[in-house]
Amino acid sequence: MNKAKFLLVTTLSCLIYTHSAQESPSSQSGNFQSQVIVGGSLQKAQYNVVRSQRSWFDRENYSQKSGVVQNVVSPNTIHVQTANRLEEFQLIGLMDISHEFNANLRQQIVDSMEQRLIGRKVMLHQPRDYQRKNLHHNHVYLMQGSNFINSQLLKEGLGILTTNHKIDPFLKSHFQKMMESASREGLGLWYANQNETQAESKVSRRK
Question: 114: which residues sit within 8 A by CB, 6+ positions away?
Fold first, then answer.
């Protein structure tokens, strides 16, 4: 690669756009100017670059409020102190885990959520058409800084995707990928499930 091509590639590489965990793809274009060395002299160059940037939760489709987490009630329910009062919220896409299924694992998930959320400021995002999605006024997507908590719990194997909520198709696909990844890697409740399956298999072989 000659010097001119190297500088051109280097310049273009500086224009690569990265987005945070709370952003998802969509198209946005822009014009950029720079200088490159061609034939031993500096020349102006202009580039038309398409970059991705779209917030998970736009104000047109989601209402939002902020608050501080006070308590974790269950693997999908928290208490948050908002500006006016203490409110209970349920995380969209996540089901509760019953005591009968695995009381110890349920408590471990609650403990993990408490460590990351108690006393932390969070943003609560609710679909404006929540009633059409079989949701209630307290069903929300939860952001803690740049961390998308609903997604993170599924990714770490600390949640199970429920079929009772109508979820935005893009988010539903994302959630499914997170849970499938945790299942493949044997994380969280999937690790416990794999151990139980292996133990049952050994008992079956002995018979």
Answer: 72
In the block, tokens 């308590």 appear at: 71
Per the model's pLDDT, the better-predicted residue between 68 and 24 turns out to be: 68
Average confidence (pLDDT) over 148-161: 95
User: Residue 1 to residues 6, 8, 10, 115, 170: CA-CA distances in angstroms?
Assistant: 6, 11, 12, 51, 41
Burial 76-110 (b: 16+ CB within 10 A, else e): bbbbbeeeeeebebbbbbbbbbeeeebeebbebbb
In the DSSP assignment, the letter for residue 94 is B
Residue 203 lies in a domain: no
Asked whether residue 183 falls in the same domain as residue 90, the answer is yes
Contacts of residue 118, Cβ cutoff 8 Å, sequence gap at least 6: 69, 70, 71, 72
pLDDT digit string, tens, across residues 90-124: 999 999 987 777 788 899 999 999 999 999 999 99
Nearest to 172 by CA among 37, 56, 32: 56
Q: Report pLDDT digits (tens) over 168-197.
A: 899 999 999 999 999 999 999 888 656 554
Structure-token pair, residue 11: 């310049």
Domain count along the chain:
2
